Amino acid sequence: MRFHVPTLLRWSDLDAYNHVNNSRVLTLLEEARVRAFWNIGASNDDERPLAIIDAAAEGGDTLTLIARNEIEYLAPIPYSTKPLDVQLWISKMGAASAEVDYEIWSPEESQPEGAERVRYVIASSTLVFIDAATQRPRRINEREREAWTPYLDEPLTFRGGRSSD
Q: Per-domain residue ranges for the chain?
């Protein structure tokens, strides 16, 4: 199952070619990932079932570090006032890490009737969970596994193969 995060673009995301700059795509993925996984002073409800990690800045005991990012750009992302559909899921769950895969799609409501949506980007991140006190990797606990297991899905296939394989 995939988690959908509507993500708005900012004017500053655009480059001289009038589309989202490739470096800003990492920021869009980060925003979606944080909104999906981190419980930052918000109640955990049905709208954010993955958000069970208490942010260390809010007194939580877990940090997440990005060990790897891989991005494949499929089409330029034009500016839109409607939110992009950032879809994410867990493609692999290890002992102290998880692979999060993403697709960035055109906004659903911006498509003319009968037109297909555009898949702009596919990406993958390796997240490592760190104990804030010891600064060492820590195991994914049962509560996290239980919350995240419904979001386990097939890994993306990149042109030229996945770099983590």
A: 3-151
How does DSSP classify residue 144?
H
Task: Note whether 89 and 2 are within 8 A (CB).
Answer: yes
Q: Which of 111, 97, 85 is nearest to 139 (CA)?
A: 97
Neighbours of 18 (CB within 10 A): 9
**Contact status, residue 58 vs residue 155, Cβ threshold 8 Å:** no
Q: What is the CA angle 80-28-143, rounded to 5?
A: 130
Which range (14-23, 32-41, 102-111, 146-155) has the least confidence? Answer: 32-41
* Residue matched to tokens 């990149």: 158
Four-residue CA torsion sign, 129, 26, 122, 115: positive
* Residue 103, burial from CB neighbour count under 10 angstroms (0-12, 13-18, 19+): middle
pTM: 0.86
Structure confidence by residue, pLDDT tens digits, 114-132:
778 999 999 999 999 999 8
CATH hierarchy code of domain 3-151 = 3.10.129.10
| 8 Å CB contact between 56 and 62 | yes
